[in-house]
Design a protein that fits this description.
- The structure is a single chain.
- By secondary structure, the protein is mainly α.
- The chain has one domain.
- Helices cover 74% and strands 10% of the residues.
- The chain is built from 2 helices and 2 strands, in the order αββα.
- The radius of gyration is 29 Å and the shape is elongated.
Amino acid sequence: MKRLIFLILFLLLLAIGISFAVHNAEPITLNFYFGSLTGPLSLIVVVALAVGALLGVVTSVLMVFGQRRKAARLQRKLDMCEQEIRNLRHLPLRDKH
């Protein structure tokens, strides 16, 4: 049932996208500092969305790897502290009375 709902939503979004592309097929020119690009408006919008999504995914992946590295470093530090506590607990007490 869940797959059917996702399929219907996907087909609905696809139909909206195709309708958008048909209604916005006029070529436009984008001027950059180093040149220009001419193409259909719908294609340029889709490419801009794809590039934005890709940059978001790359940024998220880099942040996740950084957090995993930090977690591993903290886990090693915790293990060392726990080992030190175990060693201190096994030392005999010296009484100077």
